[in-house]
Structure formats: C-alpha cells, structure tokens
Write the structure tokens for this entry.
Amino acid sequence: MTTRLALVFSLFASVALAQPATEPSTQPTARKFPTPAELIEQMKQRRIAEASHTKVAYIDLSDPISEKPTSFSIFTSGDTHTLHDVIDRLHQARDDKDVRAVLITIGADLSLNLAQAQEIRDALLDIRRAGKKSFVYADSYDTDTYSLASGATNVCLAQGGEIMIPGVGLETTFYKGTFDKVGVTADYVQIGEYKGAEEPYTRTAPSEELKGELTHLTDALFNQIIDGISLSRNISTQSVRQMIDDAMMTAAVAKERGFVDHLVEQDNLRQLLKDELGNEIELVKDYGEAEKPQMDLSNPFSILATLGRKPEVSDKPAVAVIYADGVIADGDSQTSLLGDSGIGSDSMRRLVRMASRDEKIKAVVIRIDSPGGSALASEMMWQSVRKLSQDAKKPVIVSVGAM
C-alpha cells in the first residue's frame, strides 16, 4: 500500500515538473507607458505625415440653396446654404495654395434652380483654370445638378444611378371656360400684343404672340443647357441633344458616352481621390464655412437671445448687397412662417436710401431672383435705384438669377 502511494505521488510530481510554464501569471505585469519625450516624437511624426497629405476642400451640398440668408421660420431647419457662400467657398479653395482639389457631394435634398447651378459650374471652371482638380458626386443627376457637375474635372456617379434630363417644357392653364360657366368675367387692359400675362383669364387658348414668346423662351433655355454641358464637358452638342432625347441614361451608358468620369459609390470616394491625386489625402470637411450660432430650441431664452443678436458693424469700406428675392409687391416685404418671402417696394426703397446715405458703402449690388409681380412696385423700385446710381455717385451692379 505504501509502495503504491509513493508511486502515485511520484507520478504526480513528474507530471507537474514536465508541464511547461504556460499558465498566466496571477501577478500584475507592469505596463510600459511612453515617456514624454516619446510622446512628443510620436506627435511630431504624426504632424509630418499629415503635412505630406494632399489637402482636399470638401463641400457638402445636401440642403437647399437660397439667394439670401434665411430668416427664422418654425417650419425650416435653417440648414440652407446661400449661393453667395457656396461661390465664396469655391473661390477660397481656388486661391488657397494648400488646397489641391475640391470635392462636392450632392444630396437628395439639394434644391436649386438653373441660374444657381450655372453660377456654381462657372466657379468650378475657375478652379479647373487654376490647375486644380474638382470632383462632384451624386447618386443620380437631373438637369440642374448635372449642369452644376459638368464644370468639374471629374464627374462621379453611383453605379446604380442615372442621369435624367428630359428637356424643357412650359405649361399654361387657361381659366376662361370655367369662368364662363360660373358667370365670372375677367377685366384686364392689355398693353401691347406680347403682354400676355392676363391671357389665362381672358382666353381659352394662347394667342399666337404668347405662343411665340413661350416658344422662344423654351428654345433659349434648351440651348443654354446644351451649350453649357457641351462646352464644360467638351462633348458635341449633337451628343448632348441625343442624351436629352433619350431622357434617361444609365450610369454605364453615361460613362461610355463621356458624360461621367467615374462610377463609384460614395463610401469609396476617399480611395478614388487618393488614386487620382497620387497621394494620401486630408479631407477638410465644411471647408470655408463660417460658424453658425447654436440655438437651443428647448430653451426659449436661448431662442430670444439668438434672434435678438445684432450683427457686427464694421467701420471699413464695404459693398452693400440688397436681395430682391420673391414676388414683387406694393408696400413692405413680407415673410411668412413657411419661409416664403416677397419683395416690397417700400422696403426696397428704404434699403436703397440707407445705402445711399451710408458713407461706408462704396458700391451696391442688387441681386434679383423673382418671377415678377406688380408693375407699379417695379416702377417705384427702378426709380429709386436710378436715383442712387445718378445722385449718390456710387456704382450699382444688378445681378440677375432666375426670372
């Protein structure tokens, strides 16, 4: 019995001695932290690596573009871009020696008109002339967004996307037949054969003069679209016309015909930029965008403080920008809770007088984006602007957007 126990103990001891020391130690191991000198060296190397990256200015166009800064509205988020700000940021990237390229992504919520698209396209062409690359990406393009993108050196489209440009068309509804049934007579005085604004209320079909005017207008817009795309992309006008005749073009066909340079998903844009620029990139998000005051909507005092904040006043010489945005009407300009605005003749004349009397104002730019409106209000504003340019001896520049 004793011999067996001794043999068992001997076997256990042999096994214990033969096992390699792979069991984790229960004693805590001392963790080695980098010294301050090592941390400084790591930060230095990181800065050196980042400095060698190619800087790309990134502008995200995922929200509507407006002509002027939006006023407070309970139905709008305030996340709109002004056309002036977008153009200014592109010009800043053009002149920035540290920026090698520009990336613009177009979101589904972007809203802009053809005139705004043309101005952004022209700014992209300026970047191209400066010897810098520009990239525009969208999941799909329509007439306005593709007109914008055509100014870039690299037009990017998702593989499952398409370009849809159906052409230009105008439609007018005539109400006289309905008026006759309910006993209503529209009373207008028409001055001139081509002043057809009242025809929908006095006729059941357009006159030959109005039909001719609408045809000329659509032809002019159509040719603008074709010429703009053709010149920007260096594609024949015949090819652009064929694209519009086809109405919709798949991504693969668009690339084959030269309307798109890259079929790429948005998540792969960084790699595309790296390949095209031949270097690691530094994507500068929100490039050139000014800081916006933060408003806490849960705090009424914060809302009042933000709305009551006065703009900074400078004593330096300045150029005044007066926005004529919306329908032209008599009286004061009105802005609804829905964010819709109008051009009031009294408000416009008041702003013009202020610019005339302010000695710091050396020139005035009037930006017009309007479907028209009151003829009397237009006359009053024209007289005021003419007086400013003649009496105040200040240059007055009128910039026309959509009409």
Remarks:
- The CA atoms of residues 87 and 120 lie 6 Å apart.
